[in-house]
């Protein structure tokens, strides 16, 4: 491949510093990119993951690593950014310096990516966004986005609440995902849209950073400052599971005294739903590896790809969770 040959010559002096920068991101691993120029069809792909903040993220990472294998035609370099944008930017720069064929990442926050995306474009390395989108005025900076419609997820969660508690005055607290991230922004927007015009009010809303510990801590604060919470809307299962711990520690029954609605539908969340501690879960499908592999193969082959590939999500009541649990993949 001409692009790669040109790039390798150009980046030889950069790679040591860039590799050092990448290994500074804890949990990261890297490997030499495959040499397509020598006749191999292997695609060298650099993937920068958000972190390991949730059960959803663990399932997403496993699926990507299980799919982008050598047998499937990939040489995957994977790094974990520990929920820090600067780590992701470092990792992307290192992959650019290595001259990978494709870059893929799930951006921790929506904004602040234009400079590094422009660097990838200048190096002729196509970028695929998975799971989370970026906020940019120039959509030529990436080839494709593969993931869920987060606004719709929030809207489905809110619609369930509106349908089940219509005509009731309901006090809701919201556990938001990572501040500035696409799912936190969009799920909030969707939920608010669905409950607009009802007597269901969000009385407090704070970030729990998509983690179980964060959800527990923020919920403890909510329980201290509000004695009449009716429902928790958690932007993911893990924060909802943390909220359950806080509610039980406060001597109340999650799912009964305080209702809980979450997003993700990972196994732990589905178990809590089947156990009656969560009331409703909107799914966010983490199995994006197959779509990523297909899109990566197409962009490397110079074929056109869809700009936005939205994966399908289900939603579960308590009864539906009980039925779905035995076959749940993640
Ligand atoms: O971007 C997807 C979200 O990120 C998931 O809903 C959440 O669990 C994860 O951390």
From TrEMBL:
Taxonomic lineage: Bacteria, Bacillati, Actinomycetota, Actinomycetes, Micrococcales
Protein name: ABC transporter substrate-binding protein
Principal subcellular localization: other
Organism superkingdom: Bacteria
Pfam families, A to Z: Peripla_BP_4
Keywords of this entry: Signal
PANTHER family given in the database record: D-ALLOSE-BINDING PERIPLASMIC PROTEIN-RELATED, GALACTOFURANOSE-BINDING PROTEIN YTFQ
Keyword Membrane: no
GO molecular function: carbohydrate binding
Membership in a protein family: Belongs to the bacterial solute-binding protein 2 family.
InterPro entries cross-referenced by the UniProt entry: Peripla_BP_I, SBP_2_dom
């Amino acid at each position: 491949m001409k692009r790669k040959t040109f790039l390798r010559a150009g980046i030889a002096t950069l790679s040591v510093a860039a590799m050092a920068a990448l290994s500074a991101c804890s949990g990261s691993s890297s490997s030499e990119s495959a040499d397509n120029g020598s006749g191999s069809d292997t695609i060298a792909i650099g993937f920068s993951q958000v972190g390991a903040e949730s059960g959803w993220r663990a399932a997403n990472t496993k699926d990507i690593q299980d799919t982008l294998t050598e047998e499937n035609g990939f040489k995957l370099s994977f790094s974990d950014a520990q929920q820090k944008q600067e780590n992701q930017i470092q990792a992307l720069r290192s992959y650019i310096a290595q001259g990978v064929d494709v870059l893929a990442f799930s951006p921790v926050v929506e904004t602040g990516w234009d400079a590094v995306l422009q660097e990838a474009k200048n190096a002729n390395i196509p970028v695929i966004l998975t799971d989370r989108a970026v906020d940019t005025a120039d959509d030529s900076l990436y080839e494709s986005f593969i993931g869920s419609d987060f606004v719709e997820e929030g809207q489905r969660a809110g619609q369930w609440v509106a349908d089940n508690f219509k005509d009731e005055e309901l006090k809701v607290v919201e556990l938001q995902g990572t501040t500035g991230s696409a799912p936190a922004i969009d799920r909030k927007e969707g939920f608010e849209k669905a409950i607009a015009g009802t007597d269901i009010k969000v009385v407090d809303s704070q970030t729990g950073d998509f983690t179980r510990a964060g959800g527990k801590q923020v919920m403890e604060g909510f329980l201290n400052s509000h004695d009449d919470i009716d429902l928790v809307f958690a932007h993911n299962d893990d924060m909802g599971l943390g909220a359950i711990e806080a509610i039980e520690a406060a001597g109340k029954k999650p799912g009964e005294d305080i209702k809980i609605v979450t997003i993700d539908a990972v196994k732990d969340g589905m178990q809590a739903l089947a156990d009656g501690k969560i009331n409703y879960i909107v799914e966010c499908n983490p199995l994006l590896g197959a779509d990523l592999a297909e899109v990566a193969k197409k962009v490397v082959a110079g074929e056109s790809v869809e700009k936005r590939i939205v994966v399908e999500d289900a939603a579960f009541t308590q009864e539906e969770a009980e039925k779905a649990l035995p076959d749940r993949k993640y």
